[in-house]
Amino acid sequence: MIQGSIVALVTPMDENGAIDQSSLKNLVEFHINQGTDAIVAVGTTGESATLDEDEHCAVIKAAVDYAAGRIPVIAGTGANSTTEAIELTHRAKLAGADACLLVTPYYNKPTQEGLYLHYKAVAEAVAIDQILYNVPGRTACDMLPETIGRLSHIDNIVGVKEATGKLERVKQIRDLCRDDFALYTGDDATSCDFCLLGGNGSITVTGNAAPRLVHEMIAAAMNGDRETALAIDAKLMGLHKHLFIQSNPIPIKWALAEMGWIKPGIRLPLTWLTEDCYEIVRAALRQAEVV
Question: Angle 129-25-130 (CA atoms, 0-180°, nearest 5)?
Fold first, then answer.
């Protein structure tokens, strides 16, 4: 089971929006050196919505190659078309990804039965470990604990990224799922509490900027060391809040550019962080002692 601090990696781009492979390689090395437990390539934070299929798969392959087996790589392969999700998942497996992360179909708002059949179809089509991803704030589609429970009994559906911030769902999902099913949070602000309640890790945006601290906080929480986990989380709280001051990944890409890790590149319809937010995000970076 992949556990711990799992960073939802940004996709570095230059000022014209072209993918910056050199910066991507440097970021992978940075996370390995800082103790990140796994990375997600081309999830929501990786701007999956604006990469075409070939770019999408090329970034996954590059992340796998740069990681070179030193850290698990989870590929973002979700789509609101089941056939597209199957194709992306198949190509991620060929690229050597360790697992895939599939967001609930967005915009078309399937029923719970539609969600079940969607994920079942992908799981049956591609023999790779798959992680469900529930983020109704982005997709307008909430996958309920009962549906997650049904899906958990499909062998290669191995976990869920639950990004509602509803901590009561930890126990609800745990009670409905098979014993070795992994529960990850996708909500940085509640990630410490989530793991103290028995979660298996966090798929984190904050970890892009503060990988060592997030790794240590999640490890402490998973080990039941509440005092240590909460103390570290307090240092990270500014990032948890202000990295979402505008739509993700706008603030985290600005933060990483400020730290010197990437160039100031992002793709429309997203735009660069507005100047009135610079000092707010900069102060959060200082609070976490990463600048």
Answer: 10
